[in-house]
Amino acid sequence: MLLTTILVLLFILGLISSVDAILKTRTPQGAIAWVVSLNALPLVAVPAYWVLGRSKFHGYVSAWRDASLDIQDDLRRVLHEFQPYLVESPAGFPEYEAIKKLAGFQFVSGNEVELLVDGQATYDSIEAGIEAAESYVLFQFYIMRADRIGNRFKDQLVRKARDGVSVYVLYDELGSSNLTTEWISDFTDAGIRILPFNTRQGRDNRFQVNFRNHRKIVVVDGKSAWIGGLNVGDDYLGEDPKLTPWRDTHLRIDGPAALAAQATMVSDWHWAARKFLDELSWHPRPATGSDKRALVLASGPADDLETASLFFTTVLNLARERVWIATPYFIPDEATMVALRLALLKDIDVRIITPRLNDNWFVRHAANVYLSELASLGAKIYFYERGFMHQKVMLIDNAAAIIGTVNFDNRSFRLNFEITGVVADSKFAGEVEAMLLNDLSRSTELVEYRLEDQSLWERLKARGSVLLAPVL
């Protein structure tokens, strides 16, 4: 009798959850998948749906919008100061109006940018920037580890805080789940504010564990910002025994565009702490001797639109000569696949670099479905052979280079908070080209790869893994 009652309750919950899925799931395909599973396997599907099935991060935007009413005068002043640096129409971006609306901002001039290849160069650059800080440091990462690199930054930030520099540290509580109370106390004892992003904050957000803050942002004094693929840990220096050497890319921006990265972290901090960071500088300061045009775009599951997916689809459609993509996880959505198919039909040089060694078994096999199709249309597919490649880089013609935290998968496009840097400069694009050519020299090109020619087991692994694409 008890078992029968439990089963009836599960099927009722499955039915109620199905209605919720029909009303709220982003795509018809996703809604159908959830409805079938919720009614066929409610014991497994019901708890999975309430953890993984939510399509929007609730509360983030409304909390920021309500609080922003208190600083309208400050916002107007900041926007006025940005006027001399706003770029109205950079070369190579005919769809610029769409990009401005997605970003909520636009390209700004007066920037110096530096391409940072791999962990040592990135950490040395960030460390030098923090050392030069006079007023404040904003330090945000998806993963922070209490290892040698983590302690290196902790000790430096503690020292700067004791010298009178304000330090704010934000981390994702799942990505940085191994941090101990004692380690965090070393920050707070020095007067540093350190907080988890607190995804599940609020009465209605108890099940928001599938939405992660994947951003990596460092800002010093509102003048310099660092964004890219590297987190804080020894494994990013190639010290992981399974994923070594580690290949990654970061971007340093000096100039007005750094304030857009600052604004992104301030918004995240407001969600975590429900407070503004009041003592920050919002005065745009152009870099000396450089005038590169840069855009910083934040995206995430709280956006009204699917910002990341729409942005990358738009950028892909801009290409006239080449699209080079380097990503560890290649599971594009249908809109991105359409853009890539069109690029190949226009005889654009499409190259995709992804690691042969991967830290996610399902992603590695699911990617074969998409790589096989694009290869059949003429794309050049490369497996990076020297360890694990974790960089998220795109090169469009000789006009723009994109470096950030966004992977080519549903999680980055729809479920994670991400940040992307775009530099519209041919010289910088040339530097990125040289870097990617070096990566290609360490890669193996797939020649005449067709999934249908593989063994039944390989095809089953690939097609089965694709079914999990929405949550990978």
Provide a descriptive summary of the structure in words.
The protein is built from 16 helices and 18 strands. The strands form two sheets. It has a 16-stranded mixed β-sheet that branches. A two-stranded parallel sheet has the order 8-14. The mean pLDDT is 88. The radius of gyration is 23 Å and the shape is globular. With 472 residues, the chain is α/β, with parallel strands linked by helices. The protein has three domains: 2-52, no CATH class; 60-70 and 111-290, 2-Layer Sandwich (Endonuclease, Chain A); 307-471, Endonuclease Chain A (Endonuclease, Chain A), CATH 3.30.870. Strand 3, helix 9 and strand 4 (193-196) form a beta-alpha-beta unit. It is 43% helix and 20% strand.
Which labels suit this protein?
472 residues, alpha/beta, Endonuclease, Chain A, 16-stranded mixed beta sheet, two-stranded parallel ribbon, globular
**Helical content band:** 40-55%
- Uncertain parts: none
What is the number of strand segments? Answer: 18
Largest sheet: 16 strands, mixed
Overall 3D shape: globular
Mean pLDDT: 88
Radius of gyration: 23 Å
Q: Write out the CATH superfamily name of the largest domain.
A: Endonuclease Chain A
Structural class: alpha/beta
Counting DSSP H or I runs of 4 or more residues, the number of helices is 16
Give the N-terminus to C-terminus distance in angstroms.
39 Å
Could you say what the CATH topology of the largest domain is called?
A: Endonuclease, Chain A
